[in-house]
């Protein structure tokens, strides 16, 4: 029962789409377990480039069943337009399964996300504005709307009423906005019911049966470890658990079923939105990483903040996720630097610190301690094996592996599906 979790080891955007898609051919089910359309995967298949936000990247592999688990928050309009966009390009999406327990991002959740961010001013989180946080807040406050509610008009109406009761007070009295009408929301949501019906399923049962039958199930995390609501750089985080434990709660599969946890690790670091980032660069090196790496958000179109590799973060990701392997991505972006700095520890108020501090004050004060590694200038995009890499690129990978605490089992050397070096098989 090979059940693999694949997740971002940094602040997201590590190139998970490529990794998931690479495995997609041998995987029976690809499951998203948290987040929503705040995620963004770019998957390159042949000369076609696909940008996915909500759908699991397994949707592009014909033999694979894509699953949206109970832990995901779903904007129905985004889901339907992503599906029709793929259908127009000839991709069969009929196998998709959508958990009836997944929560729905309603139009008022999107409004609340945007209004709250504006209200926070310079203290804002820099959210994607897609209603993710407010939808998870409703879930925890037990006033959320679930996919299954679309099939009972009376229950749906009661739930929307309950959710808007307090929100309308806040919107009108605090934020000076107009109240949102219950019947309009109910009508809009009911309009999605028939279109979503073919996909709605008891995904927990389906996945556990699949594991019993020895099928290969891949759990695909959105965002990344440092954006985790519990283990990330709170409050500058997303509102769900991208870390490995989230796969169990967000898909309804017990921890004893998970056989491997793979961390996607970019050969340098990026972050979108606000929050601390010790190795961030504000010079021409940062600009070069952004340009060469194409570091612009798939979902938001925002420029990503860029910096050198941070081994303290990688070690932390190994620990909180119980990583068994790393998939190192975008090594090719570093080609051309004479020397490459790697952060091996932090200096915090005059002390050298080897591990990620739990105190946010300390983390805000953390300055990177760099070790310089020799760079390479040869084109590595055609490398098929580790031995094909220039000596200095090999040493860079080996150094990262040693510092990060788990074996690097695959290396991305270019954006294409086949531009990957496999060292140890994931299956
Ligand atoms: P939210 O998920 O829209 O609430 O945004 C919370 C924080 O997570 C913001 O800093 C976003 O930029 C960041 N974020 C959300 N999704 C992603 C992602 O897929 N990649 C990178 N950052 C993300």
List the keywords:
single chain, 427 residues, alpha/beta, Adenylosuccinate Synthetase, Chain A, domain 3, Adenylosuccinate Synthetase, subunit A, domain 2, 2 domains, ten-stranded mixed sheet, 20 strands, binds inosinic acid, metal-binding, cytoplasm, magnesium ion binding, magnesium
Total number of strands: 20
CATH superfamily of the largest domain: Adenylosuccinate Synthetase, subunit A, domain 3
Largest sheet: 10 strands, mixed
What number of domains?
2
Helical/strand content category: alpha/beta
Query: Any ligands, ions or cofactors bound here, and which?
Result: inosinic acid
Low-confidence stretches: none
What is the CATH level 1 assignment of the largest domain? Alpha Beta
Write down the CATH topology of the largest domain: Adenylosuccinate Synthetase, Chain A, domain 3
Q: Helical proportion?
A: 25-40%
CATH architectural arrangement of the largest domain: Alpha-Beta Complex
Count of helical regions: 12
Radius of gyration equals: 22 Å
| Percentage of residues in strands | 15-25%
> What is the distance, rounded to the nearest whole angstrom, between the alpha carbons of the first and last residues?
10 Å
Placed side by side, the strands forming the largest sheet appear as: 9-7-5-2-10-1-11-15-19-20
Q: Average pLDDT across residues?
A: 94
Tertiary shape: globular
